[in-house]
Amino acid sequence: MSAIESVLVENRVFPPQEAAVKAARISGMAAYEALCRQAEQDFQGFWAQQARDNVVWTRPFSRTLDESNAPFYKWFDDGELNASANCLDKHVGTPVENETAIVFEADDGTVTRVTYKELLARVGQFANALKAQGIRKGDRVIIYMPMTVEGVVAMQACARIGATHSVVFGGFSAKALNERIIDAGAVAVITANFQMRGGKELPLKAIVDDAIAMGGCTTLRTVLVYMRTPTACNMAAGRDKTFDEVLKGQSAECTPVSVGAEHPLFILYTSGSTGKPKGVQHSTGGYLLWAKLTMDWTFDIQPKDVFWCTADIGWITGHTYVAYGPLAAGATQVIFEGIPTWPDAGRFWQMIQKHKVTVFYTAPTAIRSLIKAAETDAKVHPRNWDLSSLRILGSVGEPINPEAWMWYHKNVGGERCPIVDTFWQTETGGHVITPLPGATPTVPGSCTLPLPGIMAAIVDETGKDLPNGAGGMLVIKRPWPSMIRTIWGDPERFKKSYFPEEMGGRTYLAGDGAVRSSDRGYFRITGRIDDVLNVSGHRLGTMEIESALVSKTDLVAEAAVVGRPDDLTGEAVCAFVVLKRPRPVGEEAKKIANELRNWVAKEIGPIAKPKDIRFGDNLPKTRSGKIMRRLLRSIAKGEAITQDTSTLENPAILEQLAEKN
Ligand code: WTA
User: Fold this and answer.
1) What Rg do the C-alpha atoms of the chain give, in angstroms?
2) Residue 641 belongs to a domain
3) Which residues are annotated as a binding site for CoA?
4) What residues does the AMP-binding enzyme C-terminal domain cover (predicted)?
5) Model-level pTM?
6) What is the distance in A from the centroid of ligand 1 to the CA of 575?
7) Residue closest by Cα to atom 24 of ligand 1
């Protein structure tokens, strides 16, 4: 593992405007530094206070942090709470209860508003329906839903009865869904007949049927189907029921079930460095604290704010900053069903104007594609809309390049809105390194400084601290409340992946390379240092894609997958393939490449389709048979090979692999 990279020199600094500083909760750098000091001086006392101030406990905790079985850390573990009560019931009897919780804009532009009171009733009723289906505390429930109010209701209803949800992104294949149902031991799947995206009706329930037909889903008893569109779908008698059927006659009142702080609120599958996705398990207490706290710290959320996070609930960002955080903070949020480029690439800007969005949170990939669209079609440039309601902009999911940052700052933020470039991961539960909008001077391309209490550092392979300016591995040296608790069903993999022995077994290894600037000590993330790719902000394992390719046993003998930089998607998937037949060229190569792309889409999902597929008679290997991935990365980038190839068994194939299809 090595992440040494040249240090990009970025001299532009944008301090927050004075009025913003004055109005903010954490006002000015001195206030931020004071919080950091508090956390350093009395680590447990600091977190105990935050947990008391920000979470409603049904039973107060007496222990803050239990490190006796590190790295299986426990936070607030003798405390009890309910996550849904912390998002909904908490607001009953306060002015928030009659405020809008969700402004839902459907794909076709139809807008629906749901108040906190109404949302509580819908969640209560759905929770009762789940109970009537025999779903109980501790059961696992898969949610395979479009971006709709119903998706959030399903998540909240699971939390309300203490069932552990596992949301699977609606773009994943039947095979991926099947594996997750089996791994989680799910008793139910909550889905919709179809999803609407870009004016198209795309099947969801049919994919659930395929997933179950693949076999092995022995724990599964029930499939609940939200009829998003009037189009009928297959319904298996006894197993499948529509929302209408199960909600009928159910009361809207459902007492939230108190669970221990460490009770698994959810499992979310994400890619790692092996072929099998990891079920990242999160707690209830520590996670919820983080969702609420970061809404306050990073977005400085205020009663009049209209918050819009564009992430899908199938990703961690859609968990923390759609399904839980905004509700725990009592905010009004926009939920959008569709896609940013339909009916045209002005959709986001139009929606910001229409809903008077004040805090907007999206991914660099979306920004880059909207820049491209605005450059080719002036009609979709953000200047055509009134974006003056905006006060804070956010970025998440991948490094934001300084050019995109500047465009976002100028054309969306009107040079007035601070940009919070939030670094975090599925495993961290919420933001860990990010600017604070009323304190931190921002620098394009930098996620700046860790939140108070996050002991982030950059180290070498042995865990030794590196000086500013030197690139190395990003670690977090002390536990934090919302950290991953384990990998579902695989505690050994949890220890091995995140807490390497060489570093003492207690330091969290993020899997990213990073460098701190020499002047301010600001962090800049240089990208993954493991076998994880980040394509359009979506995590994909190279091994996952390789296993998918070689599982096409009639065609593929061997495959190696690497990432290469891409202007639009950040990284693109590049696959090198050896077939069980002579190396194809010309039209035949194109045809087979397409066949393989569709195969990967079927095995994992369309997001994993390799952009580039190259065929060779062999792969570049050392004499001991190891695939030289570094060489493949250079070939994928189109670089001249400068590495020493003398140890290569078969140098001639390099030329073959450089040929594009
Ligand atoms: C990357 C998404 C640079 C990083 C919340 C990380 C980022 C991976 C940033 C996690 C950022 C996320 N700057 N890189 N602001 N945010 N990343 O689990 O490589 O889907 O390890 O969580 O995305 O992706 P995940």
Assistant:
1) 24
2) yes
3) 197-200, 317, 536
4) 544-626
5) 0.95
6) 23
7) 425
Position 456 confidence tier, pLDDT thresholds 50, 70, 90: very high
Ligand 1 atom index nearest CA of 527: 19
Which two tokens mark 547?
A: 């296993």
Mean pLDDT on 191-205: 97
**Across residues 115-144, what is the average pLDDT?**
98
3-state secondary structure labels for all residues of 330-395: CCEEEEECCCCCCCCCCHHHHHHHHHCCCEEEECHHHHHHHHHHHHHCHHHCHHHCCCCCCCEEEE
The mean of the pLDDT values for the chain is 95
What pLDDT is recorded for position 186? 98
Structure tokens, 429: 């539960």
pLDDT at residue 652, as a whole number: 81
Residue in this structure with the two tokens 């669970």, named with its chain if needed: 259
* Residues of the domain holding 612: 536-658
Could you tell me the maximum CA-CA distance found in the chain, to the nearest angstrom? 75
Q: How far is the CA of 528 from the centre of ligand 1 (A)?
A: 9
Q: Compute the distance between CA of residue 622 and CA of residue 102 in angstroms, rounded to an integer.
A: 57
Residue 293 Cα to ligand 1 middle (Å): 19
In a domain, 582, yes or no: yes
Atom of ligand 1 nearest to the CA of 315: 20
Q: Which residues are annotated as a binding site?
A: 197-200, 317, 397-399, 421-426, 512, 528, 536, 539, 550, 556
Question: For 341-393, what is each residue's pLDDT tens digit?
Answer: 999 999 999 999 999 999 999 999 999 999 999 999 999 999 999 999 999 99
Q: Would residue 324 count as lying in a domain?
A: no
55 CA distance to ligand 1 middle (Å): 26
Which secondary structure element, helix H or strand E, spans residue 624, and what is its range?
none
**Domains of the chain: total:** 1
Q: Which tops the pLDDT comparison, 4 or 190?
A: 190
CA of 434, closest atom in ligand 1: 15
- Residue 9: pLDDT band (50, 70, 90) is low
The pLDDT score that the predictor gives to residue 8 is: 53
Specify if 646 maps to a domain.
yes
Residue 2 has pLDDT above 70, yes or no: no
Cα gap 399→303, rounded to integer Å? 30
Q: Residue 7 — very low, low, confident or very high, per pLDDT cuts 50/70/90? A: very low
Share of the chain above pLDDT 70, in %: 99
Contacts of 176 (CB under 8 A, 6+ apart): 168, 277, 603, 604, 605
413: left (phi over 0), alpha (psi -120 to 50) or beta: alpha
Question: Domain containing 574 — which CATH number?
Answer: 3.30.300.30
| 394 CA distance to ligand 1 middle (Å) | 13
CA dihedral 582, 586, 591, 596 (to 10 degrees): 60
User: pLDDT for 537-553, tens place per residue?
Assistant: 999 999 999 999 999 99
> Which protein residue has the closest C-alpha to ligand 1 atom 10?
425
Give the Cβ contact number of residue 496 at 10 Å. Answer: 12
> Which residues have CB under 6 Å of ligand 1?
270, 315-317, 396-399, 421-426, 447, 511-512, 525, 528, 534, 539
Distance of CA 539 to the CA centre of its chain: 8
- Of 525, 532, 533, best ligand 1 pocket probe by most atoms within 8 Å of the beta carbon: 525
Ligand 1: atom nearest CA of 447 is: 15
